[in-house]
Amino acid sequence: MSICQVRYIFWRCILDIRDIYVVLCKLIGVMIRVHIDEMLREQSKTFYWLAKETGVSHTTLWRLKKDKAQGITFNTLESICQALKCDPGDVLKIGSAKRKPKRR
Q1: Is residue 102 domain-resident?
Q2: Which of 27, 32, 44, 103 is buried most, with the most CB atoms less than 10 Å from its CB?
Q3: What is the DSSP letter of 66?
């Protein structure tokens, strides 16, 4: 088996585990929430200010805010925490998934 095949198998397993985690979180209704809005409101700062201060794109921050992001890098999290002068636990919280109303 070549190193390329080993790498492929390794990454395939990692992706499978992540997919399983996402499905379980949706079934159980628990997920990690990003509380950027609350932190900005407490400090009377704007979303635009955070994007400018951290160098993180407005689109990335919007996805985090709207729970549309699949993940966050440590660099992004660190930049947000430094700008807001807080800990990662202040930004990331475990919460229940938002339930979409059933259509009639």
Answers
A1: no
A2: 32
A3: T
Confidence (pTM): 0.64
Rounded CA-CA distance 66/7 in Å is 33
Here the CATH number for the domain that contains residue 81 is: 1.10.260.40
Pair of tokens at residue 48: 């635009």
Contact 91, 81 (CB under 8 A): yes
The rounded distance, in Å, linking the Cα atoms of 84 and 78 is: 10
| Tokens found for residue 94 | 């475990």
Domain count, the chain: 1
- Total count of residues recorded for the chain: 104
- Only one residue has tokens 């700008």, namely 83
